[in-house]
Amino acid sequence: MLKRELRKKYKNLRADITPSQASDFGLILANGLLQIPIWDFFYYHIFLSIEEKNEVDTLPLITLLQGKDKNIVVPKVSGKNSMENYLLTDSTPFKKSAWGVPEPVDGIEIPESKIDVVFVPLLAFDTLGNRIGYGKGYYDTFLNKCRKETVKIGLSFFGAENERITDVNVNDVKLDYCVTPKKVYEF
């Protein structure tokens, strides 16, 4: 199936999820992550949810990471297909971007080479670990700059798409895991 078809399908499915359900699913996903062997690392990159797009609520995961004394890194768009990554602290100031993404205004920048685990936003994924985002390429560009051993974990309201994504390109980065409310997928 083509990415554009899946984007449309999953945007429509996501639109039916209430804010309360999104919050509940965020907690379920955070608990599901406890099954994955990622807790000995130091730097965890996490996207901040866009409420208006009914994205997975990442606040429960941030709380979990803080409770385990992990270094949390959050992104800020810095140009075409480019992101900078900042350490999340109690004093990190945030501002919403033009897309409605909460982004750090400034702070301690963390290079991609230090990031051990990336929680990746997505609209859909297939059984091979291919993911579909919004199509701008920010995360694929970022993930290609990370170390090969960086663990990539998708967070999704929905299970894997059974039909293979047919228009995967050479710059698309596959997931290592995807956590859904019903299952943890390993690729």
TrEMBL record:
Tree of life domain: Bacteria
The keyword Metal-binding belongs to this UniProt entry's keyword annotation: yes
EC number: 6.3.3.2
Residues annotated to bind substrate: I50, E55
Catalytic activity reported: (6S)-5-formyl-5,6,7,8-tetrahydrofolate + ATP = (6R)-5,10-methenyltetrahydrofolate + ADP + phosphate
Pfam families, A to Z: 5-FTHF_cyc-lig
SUPFAM superfamilies in the record: NagB/RpiA/CoA transferase-like
Enzyme class, spelled out: ligase
Assigned keywords, A-Z: ATP-binding, Ligase, Magnesium, Metal-binding, Nucleotide-binding
Cofactor: Mg(2+)
Coiled coil: none
One of the protein's GO biological processes: folic acid-containing compound biosynthetic process
One MF term in the entry's GO annotations: ATP binding
InterPro entries found in the cross-reference section: FTHF_cligase, FTHF_cligase-like_sf, NagB/RpiA_transferase-like
Family per record: Belongs to the 5-formyltetrahydrofolate cyclo-ligase family.
NCBIfam families listed in its UniProt record: MTHFS_bact
Descriptive protein name: 5-formyltetrahydrofolate cyclo-ligase
The species this protein was found in: Flagellimonas lutimaris
